[in-house]
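User:
Note these tokens:
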Amino acid sequence: MAVAAMYMHARQLTRCPTRFSCRRTLSVSAPALGLKVLFFGSDEFADRVLRELDGNRTGTQPWIDHMEVVCPQSNYYMKREKKVYTYQSPVHKLALKKGLNVHHPLPGSMSSWMIPLIDGGNIPGQFDIGIVASFGRFLPSRIINGFKKGMINVHPSLLPKYRGPSPIQTAILNGDPTSGVTIQEIHPSVIDGGKVLAQVPYPIPETAPYGQLVDEMGTLGGQLTVKVLRDLENIRGKSIEQDESQVSHTRMFDREDSVIVWERMTAEDIFRVHRTFYQKEPVHTCMRIKNKVKWVQFLELSVAPEKTPPINAQFLDFPPGSVFYQKKVPYVEISCLGGGRIHATRFRVSGKAERDPFQFIAGYVKAWKDKRMITRPINTKHLTPPFAYPEGYVKPTSYTDAYKNVDRKLQYCADLATKRLLHDAGYSLASESSADDDDDDD
């Protein structure tokens, strides 16, 4: 696709489906009485959205007059008359820091949950609108209809693509160059199936980890939500139904999804898994040392740069998962399907302490006869089975073959065009309120 065509495509995505002008909405004066908002959320993405909303509440031209929070119950025990939390959602922690009232529904269904009174009944009236971001629980029609202006949801994908619980992780794993944020109505029966109010694109940085995407997309989602609140009724009148023929769904991930499958994963695939899960479940694989099989976690890894020659010039003669090292080289190199290589610099073996490459080599690799990682544990009473290549697989003839299909210049141009459009529309991927809070934490 030509750069000009990509620029036009990015500009179309930046426009909200309602075609409202971000520049025009910025000129609208704030109402005499701002909105009373009940925010539903739990995780880091919701935390970033809440920061932007609270920044508007406390700003010079607020559209939000009062806000309270609904989030999962925290777990704690008392020590010296102080609460020590064993679990506390990011949203709960931020709400307490900002002095917002917090409500905890009981675990399970929300069918019997009642919308609370504003400030415990000290403020007359009822909440104007409910805003949901990564709440993780189904909200029945009774709750949706209990707000004067209904409820809206902030979802980190360009719906109808990637409905469900893990749109950011799925976008990284699929190697998508662009994702985005959608503001939608809450549908009473279909999760993430409501009318689309607004969307904005987000170019996914090529090496960015999951945490960075959560921070930046959450910030972007909060800013877009404020823009929608400024012209809500007009935008609702021009909302659009989702195209059901374009729907795709995501699923919950578990530990099994971070296992390296050498028989089908390229170096790029492994790195995407690392970017997605490294904070909670690092990518891991097996190695056999004599009569034992040990699990190895890669805590830090990267794809070998194209211009970096391999440690072993004949590495293509070895099966994927083969380990190479060299004295004074600060990484362990592992061959992958397709001729690519990964460089690992931090390890943890079977729950032991972290190891750097030199410690890993001295403690494990030198005593390791086969020097090949394997996908699954095997019966150590038998020889390690030969590597099973995919059917029809053709071995590369040069290590540069792994980089032929990666057009990084084209990706860079697309990212630059989209970021320019976001800036011109008044968005910022760096949240000032977030930065201030981080300074306070220090």
